[in-house]
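Quick one, probably user error.
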């Protein structure tokens, strides 16, 4: 039992609730005093102590960032944590700029636009960010990544020790919640569950299904998810209405019972443009015994192997359509891939596997000697 204080730093309490409760439970089991700092919306953190951060997730200007860093700096000084576990890029930036002598666990849940948009500005920002992370990890900290490409991005040819750079299976899932079920009768349903943002490639899935239906293939695309108002890449209402005008495209909005969603789908789809960590939606679909069609981008390629799904190049609706058509025409292949997908989740992608990785990172960070208060 450690007796150390562990501060989780995130943007939203609902994100912690939906993805990382297993980490909070594991921390308490190991004797950490647990505090969660995020913008609070009333999400149930199971009795955990939560501290509100006055942030604007969509704000990217210097004034907004300065306010956020000031709020985090004040929080760190008040709480005096032994370990700060920062979840995703923006909280990582807060943790590094807020200073303090706490050990840091930098949990990289994907690179977002730094990877999805390849422009001179994002490439420069990406290189500078990776260099900054390497410098921070050389002092007192550990790195959690969800795919090997993100680890290589941070290392930049100078490998970190395995004890301090740990690849975790995303947030992991509870396989008891997601149960395989026989396929529903009727047309083949391609399910896609994600935030409605540009990087997820919903428009690519819509175009692929439009092409298939023009070829006489009876498939339906069912989209679960809502626009993310705080994301600069959010899908506009007019675009959603254009999608819904296509025959065979259904948008059903936010879905709370994902087990039921995947029960009514035959194929899981995620034509991401990149920037992923390890998409939770694919873990959920796999646990429900559904084969996967997705883009060949980091994070997805780490999980989707030929035994559980088919990959298409990013930004290629025709190739995505071809992969969907192959699975739509072969129920036996869908069943075999679905069984293999469920087994893959059970053997390495459950909540306990993710919690094991996080616990190793906390321990590794604490073992490093404290350094000076710095940013």
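Nope, works fine. Designed sequence:
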């Amino acid at each position: 039992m450690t007796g150390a204080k562990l501060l989780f730093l995130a943007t939203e309490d609902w994100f912690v609730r939906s993805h990382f409760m297993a980490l909070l439970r594991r921390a308490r089991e190991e004797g950490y005093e647990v505090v969660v700092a995020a913008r609070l919306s009333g999400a149930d953190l199971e009795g955990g102590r939560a501290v509100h951060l006055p942030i604007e997730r969509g704000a990217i200007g210097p004034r907004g960032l300065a306010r956020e860093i000031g709020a985090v700096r004040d929080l760190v000084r008040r709480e005096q944590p032994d370990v700060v576990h920062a979840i995703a890029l923006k909280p990582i930036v807060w943790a590094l700029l807020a200073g303090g002598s706490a050990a840091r666990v930098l949990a990289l849940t994907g690179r977002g636009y730094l990877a999805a948009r390849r422009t001179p500005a994002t490439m420069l920002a990406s290189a500078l960010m990776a260099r900054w992370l390497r410098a921070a990890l050389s002092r007192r900290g550990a790195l959690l990544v969800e795919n090997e490409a993100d680890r290589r991005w941070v290392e930049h040819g100078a490998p970190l020790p395995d004890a301090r750079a740990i690849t975790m299976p995303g947030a992991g899932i509870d396989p008891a919640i997601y149960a395989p079920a026989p396929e529903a009768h009727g047309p083949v349903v391609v399910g896609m569950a994600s935030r409605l943002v540009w990087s997820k490639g919903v428009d690519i899935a819509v175009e692929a299904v439009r092409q298939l239906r023009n070829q006489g293939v009876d498939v339906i695309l069912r989209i679960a998810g809502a626009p993310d108002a705080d994301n600069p890449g959010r899908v506009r209402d007019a675009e959603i209405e254009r999608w819904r005008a296509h025959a065979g495209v259904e948008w059903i909005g936010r879905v709370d019972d994902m087990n039921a969603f995947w029960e009514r789908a035959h194929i899981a789809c995620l034509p991401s443009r990149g920037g992923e960590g390890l998409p939770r939606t694919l873990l959920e679909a796999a646990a429900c015994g559904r084969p996967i069609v997705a883009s060949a981008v980091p994070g997805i390629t780490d999980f989707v192997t030929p035994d559980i799904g088919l990959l298409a190049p990013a930004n290629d609706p025709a190739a995505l359509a071809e992969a969907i058509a192959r699975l739509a025409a072969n129920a036996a292949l869908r069943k075999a891939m679905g069984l293999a997908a469920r087994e893959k989740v059970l053997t390495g992608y459950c909540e306990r596997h993710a919690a094991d990785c996080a616990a190793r990172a906390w321990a590794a960070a604490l073992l490093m000697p404290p350094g000076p208060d710095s940013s």
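The chain has two domains: 5-172+351-367, 188-348.
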